């Protein structure tokens, strides 16, 4: 075995290295009767000129191939250094590249040695920080470890047919009024998933999202509320694909970070990547015939086309003369298949092709890609518990004073200070309270997850403080709803007022769930997501436009501030209330006719919408 010395020479955050791609740390062979220190002294005379410096010898010997390597660290941070050899360079240790595992092991061992000797310097700290970052980068595993396979050829061809059907129907439906066409597309996508991928993981939450997406799609055939018709274009795909994901992979848990990462990787990234498999599948399936047979097939195909074209022309002419209805449809074939011109046809073809590729890529990925492991990351607990307790105490004191004032003046109607009126006090500050409730909810969750708790006693104190702030925040949510109710009783309902009220109610429910998270360490993401979806579906089906019109009409005789024109801007869902208001003389013909003109004229069965079709009945 050959004895050698490896030199780690640092000046500040820069490390001395050999100017080459690998084996970058200087290694010097020790001569007979030479100590490691004398070896380094000899080498530095010829290669690098240094002044006074701190020298640390590492006792550990590293065995690499035929070498026994000793390690010597020289800290030149406080001295001048001059390189005498062009093969040597100084590099910032934070950006060092191409170090091998042995060299990284030496650096790690050196950092530990300096720690044991209690030697601290800017150079050592820089090296430790750089090594930690480099090591984390190089050893970092992907968040989701996948095993990619290939779909069965027959199943892939079946998927092409189903994807083509969905793409073709979508290209027809999307340029017309969205009615029962939406649940048809969603049913086809669900059917394609079940046929091609199958239910591999019987996840209750997966079924919940799948059913929720279909229930929401049905609203396009019933209601006309523009707000939800736009929002559902986002919510339905997310809910549908979430269901697909959970029903496919048992290793994907419904937790915020891991689920969102899995959704982005397996639904978006994999779907896009697998779209390239479609042309390859077609080539492998139909392009595997040898060239001689191909030429023979092509000859007969061309011959058949030459015979077919004149034959079809003659047949169409004879059939058109024999039947006037057939002639009518033949003459108006573009209108019949709902294509206006060649440009319209090209756009529809592009859309159909795009969706076909996406549907193919999505189902191909879910069918052939396996999740080996999800590497869940632990949240770094960077907050000191003593600091957090100090901040929470001050916040609690402020909130207690705020709550005392609210209870006294808002709920118990205590006499207000001079210059204040109850109506003005009660109606103002609603949106600020809602914002504060939301901020408190997010902040408590974040602080609890990131606070470093040393013992159970500190944990109990923190949980009590979290619970107090949560209860005080719950009172703020209640006060916000109370204030909005007072405002509505004076000025009436609008969509925004109802939606913000419902959002506040959702925040209050989330605060109650937060108490379970605080006390029993329960995961919040699943119950909050389920609650949000249930509330959202409820909003879609309770017909808020009809409710707004009905309640505002009741207030019109009592409050002159009610905006009658606003009722004419509501969707056709408000038919029952506006028809009743017109009948009773509350809604004028002018506003009623303005509202009725929102009706959409439809031509095709798949545009059917109950409210749109029955508004004049």
From TrEMBL:
Protein name: DUF4173 domain-containing protein
Keywords associated with the record: Membrane, Transmembrane, Transmembrane helix
Species, as recorded: Clostridium gallinarum
TM stretches of this protein: 156-174, 180-197, 204-223, 229-249, 300-322, 342-362, 383-402, 430-449, 461-482, 498-517
InterPro entries: DUF4153 (IPR025291)
């Amino acid at each position: 075995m050959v004895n050698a010395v490896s030199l780690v020479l640092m000046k500040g955050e820069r490390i001395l290295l050999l100017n080459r791609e690998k084996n970058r740390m200087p290694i010097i062979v020790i001569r007979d009767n030479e100590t490691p220190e004398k070896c380094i002294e000899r080498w530095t005379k010829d290669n690098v000129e240094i002044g006074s410096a701190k020298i640390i010898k590492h006792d550990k010997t590293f065995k690499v191939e035929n070498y026994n390597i000793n390690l010597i660290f020289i800290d030149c941070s406080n001295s001048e250094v001059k390189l005498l050899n062009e093969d040597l360079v100084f590099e910032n240790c934070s950006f060092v590249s191409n170090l091998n595992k042995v060299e990284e092991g030496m650096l790690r061992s050196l950092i530990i040695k300096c720690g044991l000797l209690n030697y601290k310097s800017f150079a050592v700290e820089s090296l430790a920080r750089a090594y930690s970052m480099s090591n984390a980068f190089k050893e970092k595993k992907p968040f989701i470890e996948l095993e990619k396979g290939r779909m069965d050829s027959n199943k892939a061809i079946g998927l092409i047919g189903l994807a083509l059907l969905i793409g073709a129907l979508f290209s027809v439906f999307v340029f017309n009024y969205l009615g029962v066409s939406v649940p048809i597309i969603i049913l086809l996508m669900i059917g394609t998933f079940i046929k091609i991928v199958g239910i591999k993981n019987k996840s209750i939450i997966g079924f919940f999202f799948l059913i929720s997406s279909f229930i929401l799609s049905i609203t396009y055939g019933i209601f006309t509320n523009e707000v939800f018709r736009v929002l559902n274009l986002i919510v339905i795909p997310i809910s549908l694909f979430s269901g697909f994901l959970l029903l496919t992979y048992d290793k994907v848990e419904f937790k915020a970070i891991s689920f969102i990462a899995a959704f982005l990787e397996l639904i978006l990234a994999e779907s896009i990547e697998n779209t390239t498999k479609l042309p390859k599948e077609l080539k492998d399936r139909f392009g595997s015939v040898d060239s001689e047979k191909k030429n023979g097939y092509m000859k007969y195909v061309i011959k058949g086309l030459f015979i077919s074209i004149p034959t079809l022309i003659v047949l169409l002419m004879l059939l058109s003369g024999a039947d006037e209805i057939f002639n009518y449809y033949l003459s108006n074939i573009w209108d019949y298949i709902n294509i206006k011109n060649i440009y319209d046809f090209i756009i529809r073809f592009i859309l159909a092709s795009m969706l076909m590729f996406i549907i193919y890529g999505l189902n191909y990925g879910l069918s052939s890609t396996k999740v080996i492991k999800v590497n869940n990351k632990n949240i770094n607990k960077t907050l000191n518990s003593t600091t957090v307790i100090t901040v929470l105490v001050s916040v609690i004191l402020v909130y207690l004073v705020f709550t005392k004032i609210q209870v006294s003046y808002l709920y118990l109607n205590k006499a207000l200070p001079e210059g204040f009126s109850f109506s003005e006090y009660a109606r103002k500050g609603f949106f600020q309270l809602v914002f504060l409730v939301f901020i408190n909810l997010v902040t408590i969750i974040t602080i609890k997850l990131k606070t470093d708790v040393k013992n159970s006693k500190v944990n109990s104190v923190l949980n009590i403080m979290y619970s107090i702030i949560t209860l005080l925040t719950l009172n703020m949510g209640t006060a916000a709803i109370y204030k909005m109710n007072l405002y509505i009783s004076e000025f009436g309902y609008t969509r925004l007022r109802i939606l913000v009220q419902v959002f506040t109610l959702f925040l209050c429910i989330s605060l109650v769930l937060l108490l379970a998270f605080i006390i029993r360490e329960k995961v919040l993401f699943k119950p909050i997501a389920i609650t949000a979806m249930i509330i959202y579906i409820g909003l879609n089906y309770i017909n808020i436009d009809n409710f707004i019109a009905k309640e505002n009409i009741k207030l019109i005789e009592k409050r002159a501030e009610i905006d009658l024109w606003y009722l004419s801007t509501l969707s056709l869902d408000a038919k029952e209330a506006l028809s009743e208001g017109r009948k009773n003389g509350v809604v004028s013909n002018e506003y009623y006719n303005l509202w009725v003109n929102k009706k959409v004229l439809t031509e095709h069965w798949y545009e059917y919408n109950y409210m749109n079709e029955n508004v004049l009945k």
